Amino acid sequence: MQTMRPVLRHGRSVWDQGELPLDEFQERAGLLDAVLRREDAGGAVIVGGGDHYANLTYLTNFVPGHRWATLVHCPGQDPIMLYGLGGGRDLPYVRSVCRVADVRYAPSLGEGIASLLAERGVLAGTVGVAGLENCWPVAVHRDAVAALGRYRLVALDGPLADLRRVKRPRELRLMRHARHIVERARLAAIDAFTRGASNAACVVAAERAARLAGAHDVRSLANLADPTELRPFARVDDRRHARLVCYLAAEVAGYWADSGFTHPSAAAPGVADLRAAVDAMREAAVPGARVSDLAARSGARGSADPSGLGLGGGLGLGLAEDPRVDHASEQVLREGEVLSLRCGRLGRGCALESEMIVVRPGGGVPLGESA
Amino acid sequence: MRAGQREREIFTRRLERLRRAAECDALVLYSNGNHSFLEMDPVWYLTGHKVLGEAVVLVHGDRPARMLFAPSWDRGRVAEESAVADAQPTDDLVRDLARWCRDGGLRSAQIGVGGADKLTARRAAELGAAIGTDWRALDPVLQRAAACRDELEIMLADQATRIAEEGYRYALSAVRPGMREYEFGALLDSHMRELGADDNFLLVSASQHNLAVHAPGDRVLERGDIILAEISPSCGGQCTQICRSAVVGTASAVQREKFALLRAAMLAGIAACRPGARVADVVRTVDRMIGAAGYEQYCRPPYMRTRGHGMGSGSTFPGDLRPDSDVALAPGMLFVFHPNQYLPETGYLLCGEPIVIDEGGGRVLTRDVAVLDQTEGA
After folding, report:
1. Number of A:B CB contacts under 8 A?
2. What is the interface pTM, i.e. ipTM, of the complex?
3. Do the domains B5-145 and B151-374 sit in the same CATH topology, yes or no?
4. A307/chain B closest Cα distance in angstroms
5. CA-to-CA separations, B201 to A30, A86, A278, B83, in angstroms, rounded
6. In this structure, are residues B87 and B3 in contact, taking their beta carbons and an 8 Å threshold?
């Protein structure tokens, strides 16, 4: 779901080594090494920033705040990360929340990367790259690619996204934790609504609950100014509608969970149909199923859902990962991937229902119940 | 921002300002939906609308500006807020922009692009194919054209500053030893949301001896900690910033003395902020005062970064307040002035105010200029 992106994620920011110990990142680095071997690459340059931080965070635990961060990874050697606006005052802190001990600032990014690769003994040949084309501004990209002219650059975006689709046990734990935070936020919103709060105040109550529960980032949409559509919170608004239709998402250590709901659902016509559509998609979410079949099970017709809100899709180190649930999708589900399935309606009878599931042989299992 | 008659006139003036500055056949203003505290968003500047996803505004000669936006379901908010009346939803921004350019005979025209610094390499290539190859990035030109903020931007910054001050007062009244950094940040943030902030560049951290301010973590606040807070809410898309330091418990004499030095340097710097004054000279005023107290070596990285900076989403002129800046201050420029830095006796301290340059000099937007706050015995 498209949400309003904040200028800075400003919630709880830590490296919880109980949840994500160093050996977990060593395992993940090993998976990257295997990809590099297949590509005959001597190293990798992984860039993350904005909402495209997944590959970087997967390997470092670091979710960049300002702009982007760049990881230089060479098999068998300690990784190095380039980050910051200059001056170096942030670096001690960044090292404390990042699996990478060697964090530096480079005023010229391309030259900085080239010198790090050289420092690691990678002087020529193939280097795998990810995130260069969708994180760096065009001018930075142009200069950096020019500075890396001696290397043959091979895109790793696809292989890394593929690697991340099926969640590892520790990733599932974190996503369950994020889902728990979203549930607390949802209950806070419902409680505020029950006590007579405006729809906007319900959203603020939900966000507060999520942040107090330890969310790093929180996103929300609700029927605020207009009962028939969803909007991000933007101002004080005393309007209270017959029901609260809300989308909430919370992120922990880069991992997202979300929830779309309508309250009170009993008073909202058509909510049962939306819930039935979500349930139908969940039941069809078995390994090997075509994603387009899930979309068909939702009952929505045509190339897209009628609301335009989307039917959901993969969730993890991003709010919108592969696969997206779409009638035209050719992708096939895999066991262990996490989906957020969603059905909504805008206009009169505006409503939203959703469910987070793990793809299992017997059908999708709600994330909270998955072992 | 809901556009009334007065706002529409302001946006008309902004459009004329950009047209004059651009000196090309057409302007394409781009926003990727990634909002920044340190960058200008030209779509916001021209429409008053904070976009959810990608958006472009096409300005072609004297014709009315047109806007494309995504996602399509956001149309109600766009219709209500955008000063550009012809705003159309799209599920393929590049395709629809190409059609507009083709239909408008712009394929061989000179096109300037604002927001080019928000284009990724992939998007730049796609946009280039859509509008033709003869386009040039105009970000510095537009930044300069919009450098002197108008009454609407100042009003929004003023509102955001009220929220920042009230949010800080609220959170300070709630802070207790045993509370975690992120809990303090959560209270601060959510109270500012209650007051109407649409966003926040918020950094909150604490230590007995801070090296810098950073995102909040699990640290449990304890007596003697100094809480650092960069509080930067946004109203209607315009950001502001106040920088505050507070001691959990009671401040020591040394802490009070060192904070007073930074505060005096800040006030001297603000007094030097007059139309025509060079940023470098203003910065030197601050550095001289702190240097004279024996801290010259701490007036440079890694002990500090800059003495202040512009604030998004409009022009971020005058940019960073650095000793090598040759920017001359002018009426309407809006920025945060903050001699935030590390001192060996106390650690890093924050002390900063948003100011706007008026004809008579720098006007502080806050009601209460920073003091070293304390949670007990205040």
Report:
1. 176
2. 0.95
3. no
4. 8
5. 36, 18, 36, 26
6. no
Report pLDDT digits (tens) over A203-256.
999 999 999 999 999 999 999 999 999 999 999 999 999 999 999 999 999 999
CATH 3.90.230.10 residue window(s) in chain A: 169-369
| Partner-chain contact B72 A226, CB within 8 Å | no
According to CATH, what is the number of the domain A169-369?
3.90.230.10
Smallest Cα distance from A111 to chain B, Å: 18
- Select from A13, A85, A134 the Cβ nearest to the Cβ of B120: A134
B37: nearest CB among A8, A88, A308:
A8
- Name the closest residue on chain B to residue A67, using Cα atoms: B36
CA closest to B119 among chain A residues: A137
Report how far Cα A307 is from the mean position of its chain's Cα atoms: 22
Q: Which fold has domain B151-374?
A: Creatine Amidinohydrolase (3.90.230)
CA–CA separation, B14 vs B29, rounded Å? 13
Assigned CATH class of B5-145: alpha beta
CB-nearest partner of B217 from A8, A13, A65: A13
Measure A222 CA to nearest chain B CA, in Å: 12
Tokens of B176: 């207790």
pLDDT tens-place string over residues B55-107? 999 999 889 999 999 999 999 999 999 999 999 999 999 999 999 999 998 87
How close, in Å, is residue A287 to chain B by CA atoms? 30
Instruction: Check: CB of residue B348 under 8 Å from CB of residue B342.
Output: yes
- Nearest Cα residue to B254 out of B377, B376, B372, B378: B372
Question: In chain B, what are the domain boundaries?
Answer: 5-145, 151-374
Class assignment of domain A22-165? alpha beta
The answer to whether the predicted template modeling score (pTM) of the entire model surpasses 0.90 is yes
Contact A7 B348 (CB under 8 A): no
Contact B50 A4 (CB under 8 A): yes
In this structure, what token pair is assigned to residue B279? 């940023």
